[in-house]
Design a protein that fits this description.
alpha+beta; eight-stranded mixed sheet; four-stranded antiparallel sheet; 12 strands; 35% helix; 29% strand; globular; binds adenosine-5'-triphosphate
Amino acid sequence: MSVTVRVPAKVNVQLAVGAARPDGFHDLANVFLAVGLYDEVTVTPADALRVTCSGPGADQVPLDRTNLAARAADLLAARYGRPADVHVHIAKDIPVAGGMAGGSADAAGALVACDALWGTGASRGELLDLCAELGSDVPFALVGGAALGTGRGEKLQPLETGGTFHWVFALADGGLSTPAVYREFDRLHEGRSVPEPTASADLLTALRKGDPEALAGSLSNDLQPAAVSLYPALADTLATGRSAGALAALVSGSGPTTAFLVRDADAAESVAEALTASGTCRTARTTVSPAPGATIL
Ligand code: ATP
């Protein structure tokens, strides 16, 4: 008996970052959009907690209890006073350390899968609370679609989307550490005042209308200068996608994956081909949004 849960990657169509708080975290206004690149998390009864991983980048995923999916299984088990005696297998397709919240998605997937396998019957609200304990990006992987995250990004408000948006993602060689990108953000803003992060009204309207041109005009990522500063070659990738006809280009989350919003599926194919041929990225993937949250298969 096993349970498999499919979980989506995300792109931040807006990532507004406030000044560092005394606890080191930053207040955010974070507009998440789930995209159709998925990991699959399968849980099977076992003598003890064990994690395996397959797929691209699997060798960079830790297989001990620091794996976010293992931490999720441990947390649910502790909450319900039972052993976390489960084998968690992650079939990876979300780029590892790519700024698309793959580890967070795996955590949400493991929670939902273990809840089903163990029959713990946690409510949606309890699952969301456990997700928030595991990390700021984990609750969104559970709900999917589109949502505004405030606080550290973990307080979620679902958003309406009026249609399908087409994307190309350019995968980079290597990864960027999210804490390192925030440290670079702090360094770049030293001695300057950082405005309160607020969601862009134009962006929310563009999402609601399903209007890619309007969305392209209001995409923003305050972490982009920090990510490009740590990984300067990203500037070439962004420029290549723009000149190949993307409506807009931005760094995905903390990078180094870059995201290109395009008009339709044909544009996605030609932008992906141009990016791949340019040698400015490792590979390019086309996909659509919004995508559903954690789903039991
Ligand atoms: P985010 O966008 O949430 O900051 P990310 O997409 O940049 O994250 P992840 O792929 O989630 O990055 O992984 C970041 C690091 O977390 C990895 O380098 C890895 O060491 C660790 N990690 C822990 N659990 C996992 C997991 N299940 N999958 C991938 N990485 C994991």
